[in-house]
Amino acid sequence: MPRLAIAPEVPRDLGALAQPVRRDAVIAMRRFLQSTTSAPHPERVRNTRDPRVATLRLADRHRGVVVRQRDVFWMLTVLPDAEAWSYAQRHRFAVNAAIGVAEIWDAQGLERVEPALRRSADSTDWRLFAHVCDTDLLGLGIDAQLLPLVRLITTDANLDALEPLLPETQFAPLSVLGQGGSVAEAWRALDTYVAVPATAVDLTDLVAALERTPDRAAFVPNPSVLDRVLDAPHWCTFLYPTQHRLARQDGYDGPVLVTGGAGTGKTLVALHRAAHLAETGAGRILLVTFSQGVATDAAAKLDLLVDDEEVRARIEVGNVERLAHRIVAEAEGRAPLLVGRPDLAALWQEASEISGDLHSPAFLLREWEQVILAQNLCTVQEYLAVDRPGRSVTLGYEERTAVWKAIEHVTGRLRESGRRTLLQLASEASTLLGRSTGDLLGADGPGHEPYRHIVVDEAQDLHPAQWRLLRAAVPHGPDDLFIVGDPHQRVFDTRVALSSLGIKAETHRLTVSHRLPQEILTWGVRLRGGGPADGLVEGITELVGFRATHPGARPAVREYTSHEAELAGLVTHVKEWLGDGVPPEEIAVAARTGELVRSAKAALIEAEPAVRVSTLHGLKGLEFRRVALIGVADGIVPSADALTPATEDPTARAHDLQRERGLLYMACMRASERLYVSYSGRASPFLPP
Ligand SMILES: Nc1ncnc2c1ncn2[C@@H]1O[C@H](COP(=O)(O)OP(=O)(O)OP(=O)(O)O)[C@@H](O)[C@H]1O
């Protein structure tokens, strides 16, 4: 039976056809896979540059272009007859000698530019690649047939003219070398196209090459897989090479950490990893997302990704708070009571008074969360002995004793009333798992860890107590923890290095944003400062090398003279976007404060109530075509309430400012198409000039 290998253009081409034509084409493809008598057969095309190319007549005046080797037909595109023949004649197909991936060459285009390159070369002795020997070029996978042409290139402009005609795997290393980069740097550029490492490359084996090129070919053995590939969104089937390599690799020795800027596909990689572990491994998998809202979205995506119900049932999606809640509830036989914000605030106020107003309620809360709960300190002796990383105000023996007493007031009152905070719950849940010999949460194997694998998204915002819980919930071993996150988008005070928690992860990085247009990315990086961020990895993470795949509109920053005028401007913009045909659910409006959110909601109620309006925090983990951020003004962003007074703790204040900047950056990075930012009064100091 023949197999089809579907290129990503095919679902797109079919989607663009009139419904009856599309239907006929899909029926023809199904028949082809089943080799029925009425199945289309490969028809040779005259004057092709590659003898393996043929077309399949799929519908009235429409053909699929295929490249055949053995039982595999790589379908590249579906086009009207004349265009399909022309495509078939124009291209040739090859295997990259260095990394073994399949390549599509615009052979006719290259033949056409050759005379111009020769003329340009005749006028000068200068050659762009004179400094690189043939052996190095061939070693980088430069095709032997291309080499004479490469030797004719004299300028960057010559090389740029070749870009649309060459496979990316040929252009990328040449581009690095042309800009004066070393052979090693060119190799690094080529390595980003490796999804499945090749041990030995056979230039004649196109099928093996296609198996190493999952971003260009999805193997379809039968009609039901065909339907899935044609109907599913692109990300379900075609991960980009680096994403694929990370998500679908067989067996990591232990924890893995993948960092990357906004829109680089970290969440998609996490979803594919969970799917891969469920398909290939044994035991239950927990996919940890930031919030329950995001969990619903992730669960829906997993439903699309994993076809087999039994496999899908092995993946549970949830957040750490819920996990902690369930473990404590199961151990205690009833749902734990949580303390409400106002009650907690009143307790910290009392604690501050007990300390003789030496320390503010906010200072005490931070000390509790960032030192005591972070390091799981249970006695005053432990507290007196530890370092207090990230806290710049030094506390002597007397002061620490007083602070401990004040904090004990809060924990004691909570204990008396049987209430807990979410972080306390996480802490207790990890202790419970550590103590348990049974099967909390119904682990199916021996031991007390309820999961075999845990995959964590948005890892930058987890607290050490939550990490301890996750670590305790999965046994140490191959593929135990797969973690993705972006320290630059952190919106809480949790700058924790995984290694400090005993999680020694091998680290990887994604650098290409597939969501953001370059203009929004560049502006956002200026806003964020581009500089380092700490957390997750030991030391710091840089934004260097973070880039986009496509251009777009620059962010629109608007100044208004009053809040009313700003709201009117927002309504005008949202109406314009709706007028452009953008569905309301693809538009998000957000602001730093609840009050601004309410006023935006009121202003938009008539224009379009279905547009999402939330706080900046509420955008975390989401994506929209168009995003409007209002009230990005001095005094609002950063929020004065969220900043520690410099007199109290300058380091805490610096951290608060960085966190507020990260929050605004995260919100800006949600836009895949347009970003609109407005303020009345003075602009937020975070906005780039
Ligand atoms: N393989 C892919 N195929 C199609 N689209 C992709 C692919 N990878 C990324 N994208 C696009 O990029 C978007 C961002 O992906 P994802 O949400 O996984 O990124 P992220 O790194 O988790 O982003 P953030 O950190 O900003 O939340 C996707 O919604 C999709 O539009």
Task: Walk me through this protein's architecture.
This protein is an alpha/beta fold. The protein has five domains: 120 residues, YaeB-like fold; 92 residues, no CATH class; 183 residues, 3-Layer(aba) Sandwich (Rossmann fold), CATH 3.40.50; 77 residues; 126 residues, P-loop containing nucleotide triphosphate hydrolases (Rossmann fold). The protein is 43% helix and 18% strand. The chain is built from 27 helices and 25 strands. The strands form seven sheets. The chain has a six-stranded mixed sheet with strand order 2-3-4-5-1-8. A six-stranded parallel sheet has the order 11-10-14-15-9-16. α7 runs antiparallel to α8 and α24 runs antiparallel to α27. The chain is globular, with a radius of gyration of 29 Å. About 1% of the residues have low confidence. The structure holds adenosine-5'-triphosphate (ATP). The site of adenosine-5'-triphosphate has 21 residues, from α12, α14 and β17. Its EC number is 5.6.2.4. It catalyses: Couples ATP hydrolysis with the unwinding of duplex DNA by translocating in the 3'-5' direction; ATP + H2O = ADP + phosphate + H(+). This is DNA 3'-5' helicase. It holds the Pfam family UvrD-helicase. GO terms for molecular function: helicase activity.
Taking all Cα atoms into account, the compactness measure Rg is: 29 Å
User: What order do the strands of the largest sheet run in, or round the barrel if closed?
Assistant: 2-3-4-5-1-8
Q: For the record, what is the CATH homologous superfamily label of the largest domain?
A: P-loop containing nucleotide triphosphate hydrolases
Strand content: 15-25%
Give the CATH level 1 class of the largest domain: Alpha Beta
Estimate nothing, just give the exact number of structural domains: 5
Number of strands: 25
Global morphology: globular
- Classification by helices and strands: alpha/beta
> What is the share of helical residues?
40-55%
The count of helical stretches stands at 27
**Main beta sheet, described?**
6 strands, mixed
Give the rounded overall mean pLDDT.
91
- CATH third-level topology of the largest domain: Rossmann fold
CATH architecture verdict of the largest domain? 3-Layer(aba) Sandwich
Name every ligand kind in the structure.
adenosine-5'-triphosphate
Q: Roughly how many Å apart are the termini?
A: 63 Å
Unreliable residue stretches: 443-447
